[in-house]
Amino acid sequence: MKTTSRQLPRPFTMPWGSGEIVEEATAVGEWSEPSIQLLRYDDGSTAVRFCQYDHRGRFRRSPMMVDAKLLRALGRSLANAPRLRKLLRSLAT
After folding, report:
1. Is the pLDDT of residue 73 over 50?
2. What is the CA radius of gyration of the chain?
């Protein structure tokens, strides 16, 4: 399955802080482009964001839902995001 490549790092701003998206795993589905992102805040702390974009590349503010096929595609995309992949391993332990 095709994935979208967005420039990294790229800035983000939240009400509680700002920083850069430093790694990202994406997949292209029929209705959206789900993304798992590694965020690095300006203070050095990190977080993982689960989100989605529409097919025009606009951020969607709705829950990210993925089927098994998209989940596998996101998993394959993690090959290019080693720090994110390492953090997500803790979900399965």
Report:
1. yes
2. 13
